[in-house]
């Protein structure tokens, strides 16, 4: 499988590393920053260009869109129109309206299109689908996302926004919370409405980069779900007491399912853990599939999908549902996303 990448920033490194690890071909990278493109090409042994149109003119099995969030819509749209199968990093776009347009384009062209909610592909996370089906009538849920972030990191964010007010930056809710919202929708179904929401910001960061987000959701299945996301300087909390505290909890009449996801930069050290309390059996089950690199698994499944197999990768329509929920939570908090 030959993959070309648009964008040579930090997240593109994880894609390139996985492509090479699987023995796939990395053809060419495009980035408007010449130094970034050169550095990336030298590191991964591929060609480079500053012209994305040149990359799109070349034949490939897949084009990966790894540019900043704000540019996903324009770049992914161009890739689809050029006739490529596409993997677009999450979120699919930064507005539900743009995501609706892109999803419609994907339907019209019928080209394979995947969105990079790669946490859903881990075998442990896939096992959680079985657990979620065994909790009975769902009554409540919790989405928790806390990442350890040094307090002095906000100085960089404030300074950058002061110097470049239009810099394409997002906070914890979009960058980290979106992954867990994808899992919530996948395992608990659609959201009926956002009941309430609040966002907290560091001075000089509003409305671009939130530090804390809380929301209360009413699901179509009747359950109430609490969402909480934060970047805080707490490095000894969470399931592994390393500061990474991500949890999806679904509570029903017959059981309680919990899913602890992991720091995605450490696939060789950590694995998600899925648990189920089954009231009828009066037992607790636990599942850990071991160390699996989410990015490698994502590309392995893409190759299968391109061969016609059914795989649990996020579709454009599923990503649209996440982006609609993101917009609705911003609106409920009276913040423009």
From TrEMBL:
Residues 2-117 form the Gfo/Idh/MocA-like oxidoreductase N-terminal domain. Pfam families: GFO_IDH_MocA, GFO_IDH_MocA_C3. It comes from the Bacteria. Residues 134-232 form the GFO/IDH/MocA-like oxidoreductase domain. This is Gfo/Idh/MocA family protein.
